[in-house]
Amino acid sequence: MPDFSIGVDLGGTNLRIAAISTDGQLLEKITLGVKVALGRDHVIGEMCDAIHRLTEQYRGSGRFVGAGIGVPGIIDMETGMMRKSANLPGWSDYPVRDVIERRLGARVFLENDANVAALGEKWLGAARDVDNMAMVTLGTGIGGAIILNGKLFYGMNGMAGEFGHVTVEPNGVLCGCGNHGCAERYASATAIVRMAREAIDSGQAPALAKAASSDAEFSAKSIYNLAIQGNEDAQRIYHRFGVALGMLMADLVNVLNLDMFVIGGGVVSAWDAFAPTMFAELRERSLVYAATAPDDPKSDPLSKKEGASAWIPNYTRKKTIITQALLGSDAGLYGAARIPTS
Prior knowledge:
five-stranded mixed beta sheet; alpha/beta
């Protein structure tokens, strides 16, 4: 049996740990609830106990080469310090990598969660044959990652890929980062629920109000279910979502001109509700996409000539591929496990 590594996906709600062989075989996966209120030492203790259990279980079958850990936040790549995390209160300026390495007695690689998702899709997912790609993750917020020549691009200090904080509405809703109108305030799970609550409060969305009153966990998924059942208020929310995401993708395509853009995260399950609007907006706003868009109607369902697409012919042989992630919620686990072996 080949050697193996451990991949860890640490979120604000769930902690997932997997043993994965160097050839990409998932050996075992453990999922635990994250008890953030009990403090970082408790969370790290549970993580290390699970890693120990997996490494001991599979040590006889192959060599343990290290652990990769994806975390939601800004990381100092040189020191392994967690600088800031909205989903892990109390972890700011904390030497996460050193603490875990001391407990495990093994090499540990700390990485941003969107970066490990991109590495997973590059290794075994939608971008496995692509050297230049970007990942956009749609969840509670919007995460991002850039891979150039097969390697993560970090920027000056590891903060490249903050796609969620690209402005799509100059005088829009206040974001937690201090800016107004960030993409993640219009194209994330949180944004969907916010827009639904605002529609309900306006008194103009009775069907949404009825659904919210009978659903204690009124969520983006609840609103999606209403949208596909024909509820016009829910459909309008996903239309606004698609417009904002299309604006963001147009900016990314214009600036980066990469071979592939992979869209993942939990909200991507509502693809059919927002993708047509996203592609239409993208064609209208991006000159680069207008020149490089695929001819496949499944990839670009609204292809009438408007905006930028009316000004430039689609003449290039190379195409800009924008597609859904293939690995789902396991992308981060595979990507984290890939780091110690690459």
